[in-house]
């Protein structure tokens, strides 16, 4: 049975202010206000899940307050988060760091690396996290063959990243963007909970990039928010 919502799902607080709802296959359900910037965005999802963490990180980078409403997405992985962070980075372009690129060329590079993460990185990161972290904490057996194959594939992808990061500080250039942000939640679980820090440790530039992007104040706030069971964030 499909869940009632398709997290991560964002909406303004229910204050009766006129809102509109845009529903697309990519975005899931996305609510935002018309003319009321004081409304608190609601993020529907599980705090420990990768996709809601992407959305929360984008909001924290932009200094946008939000409320996390717990929705258990069980075993389903939702890809709407990438479209949602694009939307948020555009909507709040005048706040915080530029996460989309400043020129058409820069934006194209960001889009390219967002696609790389979704198509070439995440398909291997997800089975690693699922088999080596999610299933064990549920007391369920992991598929070791799937996990091992995914580790080998992800390692090859990271070798490509190593070459790119030997040329630029971040994936899409010399500024932190969504291209980097979308990698953080899943990679954190791989490094910290799956015992696979070696995937980064033997790649000088990837390791430096990882230490840089996870050292950002906004990401540290997200980690603290998740670990302390937060429900409301305010800059």
3D structure, described in words:
- The protein is α+β, with helices and mostly antiparallel strands and 235 residues long.
- The protein folds into two domains: 9-99 and 218-233, Glutaredoxin, CATH 3.40.30.10; 104-216, Glutathione S-transferase Yfyf (Class Pi), Chain A, domain 2, CATH 1.20.1050.
- Helices cover 51% and strands 12% of the residues.
- A hairpin with a 3-residue loop joins strand 2 (19-24) and strand 3.
- Helix 1 packs across helix 9 (217-227), helix 3 (104-137) runs antiparallel to helix 4 (144-165) and helix 4 crosses helix 8 (204-214).
- The longest helix is centred in the middle third of the chain and has 34 residues, at 104-137.
- The radius of gyration is 18 Å and the shape is globular.
- Mean pLDDT is 85; it is low at 1-36.
What features would you highlight for this structure?
single chain; 235 residues; alpha+beta; Glutaredoxin; Glutathione S-transferase Yfyf (Class Pi), Chain A, domain 2; 2 domains; four-stranded mixed sheet; two-stranded antiparallel ribbon; globular; disordered N terminus
């Amino acid at each position: 049975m499909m869940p009632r919502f398709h997290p991560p799902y964002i909406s303004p607080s229910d204050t009766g202010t006129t809102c509109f709802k845009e529903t697309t296959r990519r975005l899931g359900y996305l609510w935002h206000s018309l003319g009321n910037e004081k409304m608190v965005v609601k993020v529907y999802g599980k705090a420990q899940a990768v996709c809601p963490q992407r959305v929360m990180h984008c909001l924290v980078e932009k200094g946008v307050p939000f409320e996390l409403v717990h929705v258990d997405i069980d075993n389903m992985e939702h890809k709407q988060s990438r479209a949602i962070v694009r939307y948020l980075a555009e909507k709040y372009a005048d706040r915080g760091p530029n996460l989309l690129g400043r020129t058409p060329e820069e934006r194209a590079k960001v889009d390219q690396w967002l696609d790389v993460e979704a198509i070439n990185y995440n398909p291997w990161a997800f089975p690693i996290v699922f088999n080596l972290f999610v299933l064990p904490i549920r007391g369920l057996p992991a598929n070791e063959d799937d996990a091992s194959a995914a580790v080998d594939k992800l390692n090859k992808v990271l070798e490509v990243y190593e070459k790119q990061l030997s040329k630029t500080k971040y994936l899409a250039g010399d500024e932190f963007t969504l291209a980097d942000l979308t990698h953080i939640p899943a990679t954190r679980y791989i490094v910290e909970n799956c015992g696979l820090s070696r995937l980064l440790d033997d790649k000088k530039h990837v390791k430096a990039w990882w230490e840089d992007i996870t050292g950002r104040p906004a990401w540290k706030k997200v980690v603290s928010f998740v670990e302390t069971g937060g429900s409301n964030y305010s800059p």
